[in-house]
Amino acid sequence: MSDATDLNMASRLTLNSGQSIPRLGLGVYKAAGAEATSAVVSALKEGYRHVDTAQWYENEEDVGQGVRDSGVKRKQVWLTSKYFPEDQVKSTSDVLAALRTSLPKLDHEDGHIDLMLIHSAAGGQEGRENIWRAFAQAQKEGWIQAIGVSNFNISHLERLPGPIPALNQIELHPWCQQRPIVEYCQRHGIAIEAYSPLARAEKDKWEDPVLVKICEKHSKNPGQVLIRWSLQRGFVVIPKSSNPRRIRDNGDVFDFCLDKGDMDALNGLDRGSGGAVTWNPVDQA
């Protein structure tokens, strides 16, 4: 659990690689073009300093433009992207070349990407090893500063060659808590980042009586309570929105605190993998 009283928009988490990542970020999945650029500008104006994108989203250039348009200096913004593995095994040199395509799209100033993740564990063991070696080489060269994974389960993590990933990004919210993976990562110093923390606002979840009662208690909306839950669990959290009002609301989570009863009640909603709302491919071979 995180020390709830110390949380604020500037809160950061120090990774095992030495960098410190902002605890709250903006997700831009399915946002493209002007929509993605505008979302980044809105988030940075609201005080966010962390944006999460991916090569697969095809909006890295839009994110980079948003940072430039915002007037916030690039060095003050944490940018994460992801490399999507293919079923066909790629050589380390091919992966490095693919990683380099993200650099000019995201950063025209400092020449680095703060964090690069393997988007999923697809491609088999040999493929994952080749990709990870490319990641480690890019980190050694300095143009990627921290490296991690997404949608990796314990067996994937155990068989990955060194170095230990800085972070594992997985679907996380009260109905899908991925407890074995979270516990493994926390024991091994791997930060946990929650994607789809709002459970995609699915009606049955947002109208769950447990959540509704806590929202009424704190005069907050379901999204704010769910983000706060992730933060107090010690996760980095990246709610996705391109709506300026929702971006603002998602950042308005530092003026209240969930007490032990609230946290216990939300923790009790876990349905395991049955509560997932996304592809959640943590169990692929």
Automatic annotation (TrEMBL):
A GO term, aspect molecular function: oxidoreductase activity
Keyword entries, A-Z: Oxidoreductase
Domain of life: Eukaryota
SUPFAM superfamilies documented for this protein: NAD(P)-linked oxidoreductase
UniProt domain NADP-dependent oxidoreductase: residue ranges: 34-269
Gene3D superfamilies associated with the record: NADP-dependent oxidoreductase domain
InterPro entries: AKR (IPR020471), Aldo/ket_reductase_CS (IPR018170), NAD(P)_OxRdtase_dom_sf (IPR036812), NADP_OxRdtase_dom (IPR023210)
Residues where substrate binds: H119
One Pfam family per UniProt: Aldo_ket_red
Feature type site, description Lowers pKa of active site Tyr: K82
Protein family (similarity comment): Belongs to the aldo/keto reductase family.
Protein name: NADP-dependent oxidoreductase domain-containing protein
Species in which this protein is naturally found: Kockovaella imperatae
